[in-house]
Structure formats: structure tokens, C-alpha cells
Predict the 3D structure of the following.
Amino acid sequence: MDNGSPSVSVMLVHGAYADGSSWSNVIELLQQAGIPVTAVQNPLTSLAEDVAATRRIIELAGDPVVLAGHSWAGTVITEAGAHDAVRALVYVAARAPDVGEDYTALAGRYPAPPASAGLVFTDGFGRLTHSAFVEHFANGVEKERAEVLYAVQGPIAQTLFASRTTAAAWRQKPCWYAVSQQDHTTSPDLERFLADRMRARTIELPSGHLSIVTHPRDIADLILEAVEAVQSVGEAGRVHGALD
């Protein structure tokens, strides 16, 4: 993919109830394509701290960057993506709030997915129960892999989902979106609404919430589309639209 343009780095941000290893299958494919890639280990303690962790990695990578987020990380990349080095955004079954938007209220317009019923808080941090995680959050994932993902589940701060963004990078930068048609964690219709609102280049996958695990080739290819769009612009300017 070397056409003389600056090397594009990819930053992958994980969602709630996960850690950076959730991106492992996608990372392998991006590395095979010769793309520098890093998975951010965001702490899930607050939006500000998750964004700070993401920005640190962006600063280390330099310009240009494609930023991809799964699930809750859509909120993180919506805020962190305002960084000048970020040229494109890829959302995977992800949140994508507008500036100051009450995302919980927005999501409340759609049927409540079953995974959320299994969220239990203890001492200010929440985790999904085993059944909620394996049967709903990781629906479609092979049982052995689902059990591993459950073992590394990242607990979330009780106030995490109440956070509101001060920026909406998807309003200024080109976006790609992967909808999970069999999602038990986020309503697929909500995902379609978000993708349409940001005018993203959109694909739909016959997957549960963890398409990054079950459909890594599709997700890697979507990210590579974004990388190629950024590379095609090179040093001349910014990408102005996902399909330009």
C-alpha cells in the first residue's frame, strides 16, 4: 500500500466489558497488510480518562491516523477524533453521540437489548454476568473464545455511560460504520440511525455485537478502506468524504 504518501497508522479502541485483546484478530490482518497498528488500553473509568489514553497513543503515532472504535469506544473516538492527526473514523457497532447529546435517552427510543439486563454494579464498578456476557454480549462467538473474553472483561465505572462529549469528530471527518445485524448489546436499528446521521460508508454484517471477533476480515477490510482513502490524499490535504 506504499504509494509515496505518509504511512497511515491505525489506532483501535475497545469498548465496555472488554480490553484491547478483543481486537486481536483484526490486528493480525492489519499487520499482514503492513499497517502500523496499536490497540489502546482505555481504563473505562471515565470518558475523560479514556480519551486521554487514546490521545496519548495518537500523539505517539503521529500524523496521519485512522481511529477505530467498538461499542462504547465510539463515544471515545467521537471526542478524541477531533485531534488534528486523526484523518478518518471507523465505528464498529459503536456509539456516536453528538456534542452534549444524552445518548442514554437516544438509545431509549429503541428496544432494550438483552445484554444490558445482566449489568451488575459493585463498589461503583459494573460487569456483565456470565450468562449475559456469553449468551448476549458475545453471541455468535465460539464458546471457548467467549469464555476467554469473559475472563478479561473490563469493569466499567458506574458513571461512565452518563458522560457527554464536547466534540463530535464525525461531523468534520469521514466515517465508516459496521452494523451488527444480530446485536444483543446495541440495537441494530440504532446503529443504522447513527451510521446514517454521520453519512458513513456503511456495511452490515450477520454478526452479534463482537463482529471484531467473529468477522475480523470484514472489519479489517473496512478499516483498510479508510486507510486507503487517507493515503490517496497524502500530504495534499484532508479526506473530505468517505466515498470521495
About this structure: The two ends are 18 Å apart (CA to CA). The chain has a mean pLDDT of 93. Strands lie at 9-13, 37-40, 65-70, 86-92, 119-122, 125-128, 156-157, 175-180, 201-205.
